[in-house]
Amino acid sequence: MNQFFGRRSSLSVRRLFGGVKKVNPSGNYRRFCGLTEKIEDLSWKSMEGVVKCPANYAPLSPISFLNRAAKVYRDRTSVVYGSVQFTWEQTRWRCVKMASALARLGISRGDVVATLAPNIPAMHELHFAVPMAGAVICTLNTRHDSAMISVLLQHSEAKIIFVDYQLLHIAQGAFDLLEEKNVKPPILVLIHENSTAPSPSDSISDTYEYETLMASGDSEFVAMKPKTEWDPISVNYTSGTTSRPKGVVYNHRGAYLNALATTSLHGMFSSPVYLWTVPMFHCNGWCLIWGLAALGGTNICLRHVSTKEIFDSIVVNNVTHMSGAPTVLNMIINSSNQKPLPHTVEIMTGGAPPPPSILERIEELGFRVSHLYGLTETYGPGTSCVWKPEWDSLPRDQRLRFKARQGVEHFGLEEVDVRDSVTMQSVPSDGVTIGEIMFRGNTVMSGYLKDVKATEEAFKVETVLYRHPAVLEAAVVARPDNHWGQTACAFVKLKEGFDVSAKEIIHFCKTHLPRYMAPRTVIFEDLPKTSTGKIQKFILREKAKALGSLF
After folding, report:
1. Other C-beta atoms within 10 Å of 390: how many?
2. Which of 203, 252, 173, 265 is nearest to 443 (CA)?
3. How far is the C-alpha of 359 from the C-alpha of 294, rounded, in Å?
4. C-alpha–C-alpha distance, residues 151 and 157, integer Å
5. Containing H/E element for 448?
6. DSSP-based three-state secondary structure for 156
7. Which of 437, 458, 455 is nearest to 373 (CA)?
């Protein structure tokens, strides 16, 4: 069986090939850690005198980065959030106390602890504290509504959820929906910032406050270590264009390796200062929450991302690195808050390749852009454009085209290829032939949580479109977008005798999906098909591409 993880260059995950342990949908998720086989290479035993013992082997885990940072970078600032600042020694102390508090609440190895919060210090701390309690962190998308949050809480079987005070109403709505289904909601821990923050409703009885809970912990608590590198460390729910998000399971080994690989992609060295414009809930902040601890970096937290905050933070905090989707780049170049930068700031961008015009304008402001590609199933970043010094002398247009390339695999992966999804043969590297991106290596997910068929089935936006009484056929592809990188574009054929508008179709999708998953463009026409009746999406992709950006 082929050993690659595959994804089309369009909008949906296609299949998971060999080399990934499937998750048994039955049984208690508390025992999730025991679902993977013990993988041990015995070939080393053939050499006499060689032993494997605690002196020369420990399971890789990014939690070790925090322990080291507390010693090596003890007095260096770890977190800045407005007037709030911590050192690495303080951060570890706070994480140990929170891990202890979680254990006292009954959290044990393999339990899931969820979060619903923006880029604030608590989110940073929980990425260490939760696995230090032996648990699995599940960072939920703050753009989800109550209905989706309730589904994910039920699916993940989260025992506790940490909720930011500004998102309390979303959590309360999710709790109400769970109770309607006779499902016991998780314990709620509210993250306050001031005394005027709202309190949970009386219907939510099992609640705690973040700082109070932490204070109850023991600073001498001995943090739990993974039994094997394959123990899960996090669950990240996909949220692309699928109407049914899937729980992508990361393990300690993959998180460790991708944390180091991503800092390398970003050109980071000792003690970088990183501005958090990428959501920490997204692929655990591209694993940089852990990676910055390895380098003794400083995390500049932003509750809300705005161009004023970006430029002010760069100047005040001496920011050296930041990341963002093409939308962030767009915000920066079109901002009225632009300021001269005191130094060059490295910025990583992912997703759809940014147009050369955007790359040119943002570099004129003093940013140096590097481009990468990845997905939830590869712990975030998997490939990057590795710049060659000889390209510096190329004409500007050609240099910018090269910079927009999504590049080659990082050192945490074994191989990345683009192949025909049927024949599994590599396609020509001509920039024209369409294929499926294949990943294989240590930073490919462990599997989808409780969904053994998720790698063979696609739950697309088309599923919702087909529910509309006027829709006969539908297909969704990506349309280029100067702001978002790409948006969903629906091609629809109506049933005879029906007449509906694009606006009605979009509204219908928004009422059955999270709003950001709904298509922004609807085109009514006959769908191109093969002789066997299969919709020819490659033709539709070309049509959507020719449309250009919506705005």
Report:
1. 7
2. 252
3. 30
4. 10
5. strand 447-448
6. helix
7. 437
DSSP class of 535: B
Please tell me what DSSP assigns to residue 326: H
- The token duo for 462 is 């088309």
Query: Position of tokens 């290596």?
Result: 441
Query: How far lies 124's CA from each of 79, 289, 435, in Å?
Result: 8, 7, 38
Of the candidates 508, 348, 523, 375, which has an alpha carbon nearest to the alpha carbon of residue 439? 375
Mean pLDDT of 518-530: 89
CA angle, residues 153, 477, 353, in degrees to nearest 5: 90
The two tokens of residue 10 are: 């369009």
Cα separation, 476 vs 487, in Å, equals 10
Distance between CA atoms of residues 487 and 169, nearest Å: 28
Mean of pLDDT values over 67-90: 97
Q: What is the mean pLDDT of residues 424-447?
A: 84
CB of 530 closer than 8 Å to CB of 422: no
Contacts of 266 (CB under 8 A, 6+ apart): 272, 288, 321, 323, 346, 348, 370
Confirm if 241 and 219 have CB atoms less than 8 A apart: no
| Residue 118 Cα distances to 165, 281, 304, 498, angstroms | 10, 8, 8, 44
Residues 408-436, buried b or exposed e (16+ Cβ, 10 A)? ebbebbeebbbbeeeeeeebeeeeeeebb
> DSSP assignment, residue 260?
H
pLDDT tens sequence across 329-379: 888 998 999 988 999 999 998 876 777 788 888 989 999 998 888 889 999
Indicate yes or no: pTM above 0.90. Answer: no
Round to whole Å and give the CA distance between 530 and 153.
41
Measured CA to CA in angstroms, residue 32 lies from 68, 99, 338 at distances of 28, 19, 49
pLDDT band at 432 (very low <50, low <70, confident <90, very high): confident
* List of residues 6+ apart from 436 with CB closer than 8 A: 6, 7, 8, 9, 14, 418, 419, 420, 421
Which two tokens mark 157? 């079987």
Helix spans in 200-344 (H):
210-215, 252-265, 283-286, 288-295, 307-317, 326-333
Write out 373-437 in H/E/C secondary structure.
EEEHHHCEEEEECCCCHHHHHCCHHHHHHHHCCCCEECCCEEEEEEECCCCCCECCCCCCCCCEE
Crossing angle of the two packed helices 88-104 and 63-72, in degrees rounded to 10: 140
- With contact defined as beta carbons under 8 Å apart, do 90 and 69 qualify? no
Whether residue 179 contacts residue 163, with contact meaning beta carbons closer than 8 Å, is answered with no
Query: What are 263's two structure tokens?
Result: 């800092």
**Residue 245 tokens, joined:** 């998000």
Give the tens place of pLDDT for each residue, 151-192: 999 999 999 999 999 999 999 999 999 999 999 999 999 999
Please return the burial class of 401, using the count of CB atoms within 10 Å of its CB with bins 0-12, 13-18 and 19+.
middle
Nearby residues of 42 by Cβ (< 8 Å), 6 or more positions away: none
